[in-house]
Amino acid sequence: MRVIQAPFRPRGGVHPGYFKNLTADKPVRPMPLPPVLYVAMAQHLGAPAKPLVKKGDAVLQGQAIGAANGFVSAAVHAPAAGTVKALEDIPGLAGKPVMTVVIETDPAGGADSSLAPMPDWRRLDPKHLKERIAAAGIVGMGGAGFPTHVKLSPPSGRVIDTLIVNGAECEPYLTADYRLMLEQPERVWAGVEIIAGILGVKRIAVAIEDNKPDAIRGMEKAMQSAPATAQVVVLPTYYPQGAEKQQIYAVTGREVPSGGLPMDVGCLVENAGTCAAICAAVTEGAPLTHRLVTVTGRPLRDPQNVLAPIGATLAGLAEFCGGLQDAPGKVICGGPMMGLAQASLESAMTKTTSGLLFLTSAQVAQFTAMPCISCGRCVAACPMGLMPCELSELVETGNFSAAEDGNVLDCIECGACAFECPAHRPLVQQLRLGKAEVAARRRAREAAKK
Question: Tens of pLDDT along 274-317?
């Protein structure tokens, strides 16, 4: 095992203020069990889970309450014992109604033991390990929420030779992954070893930005007995260094083709938090029911890194961190670059909730979008080599065919273009609209062929 500097520098990127000092030195604190949890059936990419419980049912902590409803889907488990109070559609973090199991919790309730620890996992067939990861409901915890067992099942003929562990955490304010690598690097590394055993990779790279030297040292220590093919790769600090295609290029020099996937260049990227969750599922028999979340921002009295049960409300997270000392100007679930603004604190966190950010009114600028001035800043900032200014105008005029030809689907919605735009154009929103329309048209074309 060795520590190296990233050999390649991806294109584009920006340098926003990071503001990680609010929570970087705060050890993880477990949140007490709320009286009620709101556990969504759709907190991952793909088909929502199918509820396995009904109103009035008693549930155990860790019991499966939602079954994967298709290959690209994930199981959902009760974060606590209690009674199912209701099954109803409740607005989720994206604002759309989501089927939700409402659990009235019982701190004295028991725990489900259907997932036993697998201490001899190194001797097991990779198939059994993937089955355990699926049964535990593990999904990508870096934001996308792709079911992990699917990601670990490449099609026949696709060889994954490089595993990259994403410890960059390049979003401003967020420090949950940093604290995880600082406090529990052994768990992260154990999860990495499990993934490597499943895939049979030749190279392992733990990628961490150079503004996290303590995390680099922590992972280096946890990896002392790792093979020579394992590395800690130190990335220069810039946004979006944590995007998987950019990280693949920084570590390997391989470029994922337009419309392609990491497996097309022999790579797989997993978030550090996902690796720790895999460790818990395999070595402890623990399904994914809790996660680390950074609750931060100047309006909060006591910003913290919190180990919280999935289904806890945003209001409950804020209250655990001392409550609000000032009325926030904006509330964002996630980070300020890619997070979702919230209309209410009544929504509940999910498996992909990495942060809850409160901004002051002074930090929230009101502006009017102006015409593009053709300065090219968005082009220079785009990590995907796109022309955001041109694509946004094509979407505005309804020319979706030209937007498709301009590779609008390659946009990763990182927000670097809008961050740099002096005309305050809503570039991310326009490109997101363009992507949705182009994707819908492609589906319609495919359906017409059948």
Answer: 999 999 999 999 999 999 999 999 999 999 999 999 999 999 99
Cα angle: 314, vertex 150, 59; to 5 degrees: 50
Instruction: Please give the Cα distance from 99 to 85 (Å, whole number).
Output: 13
- Give tens-digit pLDDT for 104-127: 999 999 999 999 999 999 999 999
State how far the Cα of 129 lies from the Cα of 121, in Å rounded to an integer. Answer: 7
Cis preceding-peptide flag for 126 (omega within 30 of 0)? no
Say what angle helices 185-199 and 272-279 make with each other, to 10 degrees: 80
State the CB neighbour count (10 A cutoff) for residue 146.
Answer: 18
CB atoms within 10 A of CB 186: 15
Tell me the two tokens of residue 208.
């961490």
Q: Which residues partner with 356 through β-bridges?
A: 295, 333
Burial of 330 (0-12, 13-18, 19+ CB in 10 A): middle
- Global pTM reads 0.96
Angle (nearest 5°) at CA 283 between 74 and 147: 15
Beta-carbon neighbour count of residue 450 at 10 Å? 4
Q: Are strands 267-271 and 290-296 parallel, antiparallel or unpaired?
A: unpaired
